Amino acid sequence: MENNKPSEHDITEVVVAAKQSAANKSENGGVKVISHSNVQPPFSVLWATVLYCAEFICASVLSSRYHDTENVVWMGLTITFMLVPSVLTQLTLTFVHRDLGRDRPLVLFMHLLQMGPIIRCIEALVVYWQAGKKEEPYVTISRKIKLKHGRGLGSALECEIGHSERKLAEHRNAFKRTAVIQAFLGSTPQLTLQLYATIQEKYILPPRLALMVISLISIVYGALVCSVLAIQIKYDDYKVRMKPAAYLCMILWRGLEIATRITTLVLFSSALTFWVVLVGLTNLLIFFFQPWVEFWARRASLPENIEKNFSKLGTTVVLCMITFLYACINIFCWSAVQLDLADHDLVEKQPRWRCLAIYYTFRFMENVTLIVLWYYFKSDFYVYVCTPLLVVQLIVCYSLAVIFMLVFHQFCHPCRRLFHYNVEDCLRCACCWKKKQFELPADHAEGLQEHAPPDLTNHLTDRETDIVDDIMEAA
């Protein structure tokens, strides 16, 4: 039988031809090819593995402590919130790396022992240490537009990606998925449970405190991953780099938002235990069915090629799991994306500021309502606590989270110059609208209110034209 597999010499010739073709384009002012030999260390893989192991160990120690004190309920719930995300993490890593169709018994055995992230982290470190020691003729081309001062600049750059860098990118993408799953299907209910147990038992155990701190760090990290992934998906044509100030602003935004939300839910549940179930289920059902209602309203069809081996039933099951994760994220914080179940990427790439404003408005109102209800129905345990001050602190902290979110989108977002309008533009239009309404005579005020508010993009014509020109030049 004739062997059609290309030889290494043929592949090398193809790569050289691609380089020459790209070089010719570069001479004509088109695309340039840059060869990257420096592979970045897999810090995100290592950090996600450390968080996974630390949370698993602390939960195991705390479960043993509950067993010694015969707290069966706390022990069962702690083990549940420890094992469920762990099993989902193993399945995710196995699915992404397609291990079921490969002969890798050791890796599969490690996944059965719930130690899959450890073996994956070791694999990523081995790939990183071996990178650059031998020539890699197989390459993939990545085409990106470089951003300077938030705008597309010059020609698009085609960067060569070798085997090592591509394998590390696969590991990073897999651990980003597991970090989100671990954060919102494991760490979030775990932190809520342990904080509730602390209030009910009126004392703090050292293992419980350690688990709460690690869970909070895991949740904030998962929220950061969601935000960064949303930016990378929406601006896939651009080479996006986050600055330290952007990360700091996102940490403050996400940390205050999540901590305030969980504290509010726990305090409300300590006073009205059964009503918190209704609140949680209502939020879950709303965010779960919202993408499906939009999908049915558009009369769209299911996306194809999500996975080659999937039938329509399998695709529907995967979409339901993704929608469930999306709903769990939105219960505690803004997911940073809007699902579009008819699109192949499953994410709506156009930013929807109206959804962002509606979410934070209703979430702020809900948090205030829950904390006020707790204030009126609280137990005698809070006699020695200044409850009015605690209510004010929670409201102020959530307000600060919203402020840091606005600051991030106005000053720290890496692609803020590509927005059609920003926070400053909305505030400016709102102030101008109020000023005009105040200056008009009283007899014209009612007629003015009947008209729709002015278009926010009218005064940004020059700015949008500049952005379009930059994109056209870069293309």
Automatic annotation (TrEMBL):
Belongs to the XK family. Its main location: membrane. The keyword Transmembrane helix applies. InterPro entries: XK-rel, XK-related_adapter. It is a multi-pass membrane protein. It is found in: Membrane. It holds the Pfam family XK-related. PANTHER family: MEMBRANE TRANSPORT PROTEIN XK FAMILY MEMBER, XK-RELATED PROTEIN 2. Keywords: Membrane, Transmembrane, Transmembrane helix. The keyword Lipid biosynthesis does not apply. The chain crosses the membrane at residues 45-66, 72-96, 209-233, 274-293, 313-337, 357-377, 389-408. GO terms for cellular component: plasma membrane. This is XK-related protein.
